[in-house]
Amino acid sequence: MSITMRGPCEEAGESEEREKEAAAAAGCFAWVPEAEEGSDVDSDSDPETEGTHGLGELVKDTLYLRSCRVHSVVPASCFLRQGSAPELNLRHRGLGPQGARALASSLTANPYVKRLDLRDNGLCGTGAEALAGALSKSSSICDVDLSENQLGAVGAQAICAALTVNPTMQKVQLAGNSLEEQAAQYLAELLLAHTGLKSLDLSYNQLNDQAGETLGPALAENTGLIELNISWNHLRGPGAIAFARGLEANIFLRVLDISYNGFGDPGASAVGEALRTNNVLEELNMSNNRISAVGALSLGLGLRVNQTLRSFVDIQVNRQFDDLASSVKVILPGLCIKTAARRVEYKKDLLPVFRPSLPASAPK
Question: Which is it for the CA torsion 115, 120, 121, 123, positive or negative?
Answer without folding.
Answer: positive
